[in-house]
Amino acid sequence: FVQRTEWSLQLMTQRALEAESNMEKLKQEIFILQGELESSKVENENLRAGQTTDPGAVKHNIDFALQNLHKIIMGANWSIRQLTSGAESLHFVAEVLKSTGKISEVEAEKD
């Protein structure tokens, strides 16, 4: 029983470390996405400042802005999914650790 518990703890520790690693990667991804968002905002401001009446240029600018916005949205959605997955993994680890603690208490009471 103790060996199974130790193995479970090692597995949970590994999962927790992987979740932490994923969280760090996601933080970096969010930082990058925030930079891209700021760049898009600046580009948007520049486009507004140099507004043109040429329909072709307007369409090009709109297409460019939509492409950047789509990339930002896709990245944000991916980051949210990763954060949710990491949080669920951490919640699972916490529940298993809590259960393990209860099992240890029961075992101690038996002795």
From TrEMBL:
<dbReference type="GO" id="GO:0055037">
    <property type="term" value="C:recycling endosome"/>
</dbReference>
<dbReference type="GO" id="GO:0005769">
    <property type="term" value="C:early endosome"/>
</dbReference>
<dbReference type="GO" id="GO:0032465">
    <property type="term" value="P:regulation of cytokinesis"/>
</dbReference>
<protein>
    <recommendedName>
        <fullName>Endosome-associated-trafficking regulator 1</fullName>
    </recommendedName>
</protein>
<dbReference type="GO" id="GO:1903566">
    <property type="term" value="P:positive regulation of protein localization to cilium"/>
</dbReference>
<comment type="similarity">
    <text>Belongs to the ENTR1 family.</text>
</comment>
<dbReference type="GO" id="GO:0005813">
    <property type="term" value="C:centrosome"/>
</dbReference>
<dbReference type="GO" id="GO:0036064">
    <property type="term" value="C:ciliary basal body"/>
</dbReference>
<dbReference type="InterPro" id="IPR026757">
    <property type="entry name" value="ENTR1"/>
</dbReference>
<feature type="coiled-coil region">
    <location>
        <begin position="9"/>
        <end position="43"/>
    </location>
</feature>
<dbReference type="GO" id="GO:0030496">
    <property type="term" value="C:midbody"/>
</dbReference>
<keyword id="KW-0175">Coiled coil</keyword>
<dbReference type="GO" id="GO:0045724">
    <property type="term" value="P:positive regulation of cilium assembly"/>
</dbReference>
